[in-house]
Each structure stands twice: as structure tokens, then as C-alpha cells.
Amino acid sequence: MAKTKGSSKQQNRGIDFKKIKRKIGRKLPPPKNTTNTEIKSKAIVLPEQSVVSEKAGLALSKKGLTLKELLQHTSHHNAKVRKDALMGMKDLFLKHPEEIKLHRYAVIEKLRERISDDDKTVRENLYQLLKSVILPGCKEDNQGPVISLMMAYIFNAMTHLAIDIRLMAFKFFDLAVEYHPPLFFSYAEKILQNYEDILRKNQFYLEDKGKLKNVLAGLVRCLLLLPSSKEVNLLAKNVPEQKILQAFEPDVPTVFAEYSVIIKKLKNLVPVLVNCFQDFLPVLHDSLDAQSFDCMLNILRSLDHAVTFFIHGVQQGHPEPPPLDQSFSSVLLKKLLVVFPLSPMHHLSEKDDDRYVILNIAITEIFMHLSEWICPPAVLFEKFLTFVEYVLVEKSCSNMRSGKAVREKQISTLIPFIPKLVSRVIGNWKNRLLKAFTKTFQDCSPESSVKLACLAAIEEIIISQEDLLCTDVNDSGQFDYKITLVRELPKLLVLLGNRHPSSSKVVLHLLLRLGQRSLLYDDMQGLLKEFYSTDQDKGNICYGPFLRLARDSQELSICCLYYLSQLDSTLLKSIASCCLCQELDPFMLFRIIEVLHSTYKAGRIQISDHINFLITLASRYKVCPENIFPGTDRDKKTSNHATFKSLTSVVCSCLSQMGDNSLVFVILEKVILEQISLKPPLDNSCAMLRILIALDSKPTRLSEQSICTLSNVLSAYLIDVAHCVPEYNDESTIHGQTRRYYLLPSFILFDRSYKLLNLVLNVMGSLINGRSSSLLSGDHIRYAKGNSSIINAIVSVLLWMQRDAKVQQILYLYKEEIDHISRSICSLQSSEEINVPIEERHIIKCAIDRLKTLTSSLYQ
Question: Residues 60-67: contacts with CB within 8 Å, 24+ apart?
């Protein structure tokens, strides 16, 4: 029993390590405590970043920044970041200009903070960004609200402790006024006070002239907006007196409301400007550099604008008179004008010499404006007259060292003062000024600005001061200069040609004004002839500038002709050549006839010259195309048949208004017959006949010799009409109406002279009665050639006569002549002696058949 119990306990005991039997050739499994080094991975999908999604579809700069980010960077503590932000905005706006209009207010509100930025480069980049990108991008919109957002910051910068920021603020204000001029009048008192304050701080005058130049340039721009006496005088020439004040309303809406304030501020500013100018005088003794010159010139321009504004107030009768009193004038006379003329201590270069002349001219402008209201000392006045004479005489010479543009600018500035000077001076100075002015006008180039300035001065000297020039009848020199100036105008027209139409229009307008005052001279017609046309060798015509000018200039030139005391035949011939040119507008053609006919009625054209002019138009006007019925659409578009028909009617009307028709007919009779005998085209022959019947009567006034001459011409004319106009029985068609137009003058002549019809029938019969060579010898026949063509045309003419009621009655009297024509045609058709082709014999046979209907109707 013990043995059994012990074996059971041994069976229940646990096994620590179980022995696994392995088969040979099998791979051993890995141990249970082995670390698994195998790595498994899956793709990780993350959502988009929020920054990238926000920039989708937005305008970005080169560095990928949005407009919002760039605006935020403009407030960064680092100056380089602020500058880069401004440059990034410039790049963004150039690529996306629509962003400016969409966000202009937000942009200005943020950028205005940089006007007073401590860093110079940031301020300069802001200025360039506003000038070149932002403000031009808003130009189409109302810029008032945009620019007004900057004004508080600009004025704040003008009072900054740093002088550079203060000076830069004036530059920003100048830019604002440039794009929105009415802005100045909204802040006139404050801005003028700031200009006065900054100019009193003269410690930087000789240290930083470039910045001072910018300040003064801005002041000039502001003062230039003020209404001046120069503008009023200019408007007074073209605008009625009651509208002069209204001319300033769009640009200066509040100037008159703030007039007293501006006057007060300018009165304080003028002495400051004078002192500022005096501080620059020591520079003149050494070398006048460019920046000092610009500063001095801007000071003088500011003073000139202030003076002209004061004068404007006096002219407009403002209740508070401007300070044109003795105390104010003494400031300018004693401190500024007394240093005139400015001159260097030693010989200077060409450029420096021109700078001194320009400064002296600017001082002269101030003196001229001021001298209208004060009486300057005679010695000082003499100095200015001497300088004006020097500029006109010496600077107008072509061999001057100074450049052409500089020389013209110098002279053009003084030219407007010449008329007033001439009216004020007495004695020898009047002739000296007129001599210098005349020399300047003659020597300057036709297209120069000096020429235009001289033209305006000539009008004022000769027209406005006509009575003044006539006061001293013993002084013939003044009249000589006046005549010389007027005679130069036609020369100038020819020299200008068609290259400068605006200048030509000014000259023509001046000529018209002179003509209305009876100040045009007959010896000018030779030069005016070159303006229209001249005859060249071998009958060629050289057309002048007239044809190539605009219609309004052509109108002015034609109206000038009315005021010549006597138009000679050579000038009329020159004008007639222009009328015959196809380039002339038909409207202008009829306008020329109208003006010249009015001139004839005024007794300024001889009757023979006027008749020759009208007959020349009717006989030599080229009708295109020559065919009565144009064959192509192009010919129809370029056809001037209708124009010539109107011309014929106008010529007939003018001739019938010239006086007694019987007397005019005597003059015209020989001239018209001579022109028709030259075998002109069909339209011109018709025009001659229509002129003849317009002045003729029943019974005819034609002489026996004229009737004989006209019979040969008229028979050839009728044959040509029949050859050119197709045969149609319906008179309502265009062919029937055209045939009626060409035949009617002949039929009217037949009605007025039976003998003429008899002679025409005899001439037609003689053409057929002869041999073939005789048939072709019709010297006056232009279009119909060949036996059959002429015979067919003669038969057509006879049939047309038979259809006309009046001519038909006359044909009964000349049955024998018609029978003679019929027998002659039959004889020619049956003749064996004359070699006539079969085709032509057939045409002649058809003509005979057509003629039988006429002869039978006559005998019935």
C-alpha cells in the first residue's frame, strides 16, 4: 500500500521544464522572450494648414505676402522691414492694380502713419509709392476723400522737431496739391503759415538747398492756383465780362470766401521771401550753382504770383484791398528790385550766363506787374527798359552761345509786356522797343514759341493800341514798324506750311482781325498768292498750304480776302486753281464762291475778273469719271457729277446777280463761245450753255456771228450727247432725266432762235452729205467716231427734237432740211464708192428706218 501512495504523489508533482521533442530537419521556433524588431507603418493624412488656406486667391507680393500682412509690416520696429513692406506693396499694386481701388482708404489710413517716420529711406519710399502707384491708380476717382485722410498727418509732420521730417512734409503736401488742387484752398491759412514758419528757419538755407528747393517748388504750385490778373486779362479777350469770375469756380471753389485770409497770410509771407532771396545774394559773387539758382527762381516766382494775386483783388474790386500800398511796394523796390540787374563778378560759362538772364527776367516780371499800380523811379524804369531791349535784340541773334530752347524761353517771357511798355513810354523809347520787337519777330523761327508770343503782342500793339499809334502823326517810324509787322504775316503763313496748323490758324485769325480794322495792304496779295497756289513751268501748278489745312483755317483765310481793298486778277487765278483741285472739299468750294461774290458786291473785285473766275470754274472743273453713267461701283463713289451740277447752278446764280443781264451777256458772249470752241468735256460744255441761256432772253441776244459759230459747236455737242446717253423712250428713268438735262439748254436756244436750229440741221446734213473723210472731219465732235456712230447719233437727236413739244413745232418749218438729212443717209448707205463695212451698213439701215417715223409724222 505504501508503494501505491508514493507513486500517486509523484504523478501530481509539477513539471518545471517541459522537454519538447524536435524532429530532425525542422526549423526551430523563436524563443518566447525574443523582441520583435519588425517595423510596420501606415500613411498619415494631416488637414491643410490654416495659413495656406487663407492666402488662396489673394493678391501676393514677390515674397508671398498679402496686402494685410504688408500693411502690418509697415508698423514694424525695424526700419528695414518697414521699407521692404512699402516696396512689396509697390510690387503688389503694379501686378494687381485693382487692389488700389478696392482698398485705397484702408491703405492710406495705414500708410499715413509713415509720413513722420524717423527713417529717411522709409519716407522716401512712401513718397515714391504714393507718387508713382497709389495716387495715379486713384486718378479716375474722386481723390478728395483719399487725400484728405493724409492732411492731419502732413500738418503734424510740418511741426515735427526734426527738420528733415518737416521739409519732407512739404514735399508730401506738394504731391497732394498736384493730384487735388482744391485742397490748397481748404487749408490755405494753415499751409501758408507753415510755409512762413519754415522759411523763417534760415539755418538750413546754405546747408541743404535741395530740400529748400522742394519746399519752394511746393509754394509755387500752391500760389499758381490763385486767380491772377494775367488769367483775367487772358479770359477778357475771349470770354464776356460777366463770365470772367465764373471761369475760376470749378478749380477754386472757396478762394473768394477765403480771400481776406489769403491776403493777410501773403502779406506776411512776402517779406520773408524777400529776406530769403537776399540771403542767397552772396552766392552770386562766387558761382551760381544749380540748386541755388532753382531756389532763387522759385522765390521770385512765388513773389510774382503773390503780386498778380494782389492786382487781381484790385481789379475785381474786393472790399478789403490788397496791400499794394507804399509800405508794401517799398519792400520790393528797396530790397529786391534795387539789386537789378543781377550780374556776376567775373566771366562765366554759357550755362551760368543764362541763369543770370533768367533771374533778371523773373525780377522784370515782378516789376512789370507792380509798375501797373505804382509809379517806380525813372532811373529804375530806365534800367528795366534797357534790359528788355537787350534780351530782345541780343538774345534773338542766331549766333548766340545759348541753346535755342533756352533762348526762346527767355524771350517768350518778356514778349507779353511789350504792348503795355509801348503804350507807356514816350519819345525815343517807343521806337526803340518797336524796333527791337520787330527784329525779334523777323529773326525767330516760324514754329518757335517766340513767334506765337509775338503774334499775340502784334494784335494788342496794332489793334488794341491803334489810336495810340496814330497820336503822333509826325512820327512815321511807328507806322513803318506797324506796316512791316503786318506784311510779315503772309510770309509766315507760307513758311509754316501745313506742318504747324495751330500756328497757321493763329496767324489767319490775326489777319482777319486786321482786315476788320482795314489794316490789310494790297501789296500783301503777292505773298498770299503763294499761300494758295503758284504756276510752275510747263503749266504745272504748285499748291500752297491752303489745301492741306483744316476747314476752319481755310474758312479764316477765305474771309480775309473780303477785307482787301482790291483783289487783283493774279490772286483770283491762284484761288481758282485751288477750286479746281480735286482735293478741295466741295463745301469750301462753294464757300469761296460765296465770299468772293460778296467781295464783288462790295466793289473790291472788277467785273471782268469776277466773270473770268466764274467761267474758269465752269469750263475747267474736271468731272470724274468723264462717263455720264459710271460703269463700276468705285466710279459711283468717287463721282462728282452732282457737285458740278451744283457748281453750275451757283455760277449761273452769281452771274445773274451781277447787274443788267443784257450788259453782262455782252461781256460773256464771246468768252463762252471761246471756251466751248476749245472742245471741253461734255459736262463743261453743258455748263457753258446753261450759263448762256441764264443770261439770254427771247428772242435771243446772240449776234449773227455768234449764232453761226454756235451752230457748229452745238451740232457736235448734240451728237456727243446722243452718243453718250443710251436711247430710252421713258423720260421718267434716270437715263431719260439725264438726257433731258443735257438737251434742255440746246432746245431753249432753238426756241429763242429759229435760225440757230436751221443752221444746226444744215451742219448735220453737210456732215452726212460729204464723203467718209468729210464725215469724220467734225472738229468739234469729241466722243462719236465713225460713220455709223455719227449717223445714228444724228437720227437720235432728231427724234428727241420731235418728242419735245416746242422744238417739234419749229421742226415743221424745216422739213426740207430733215428730208435732206434723210436722203444723205440713204445715199451713203447705198453708195458703192465708199467702203462701208457690213456692220455699219446695217446700223445705218436701222437709222434710216427710225428716221422714217419722224419724216412721216412731220408730213402728217
Answer: 60/92, 61/88, 61/89, 61/91, 61/92, 62/88, 62/91, 63/88, 67/92, 67/99, 67/103, 67/107
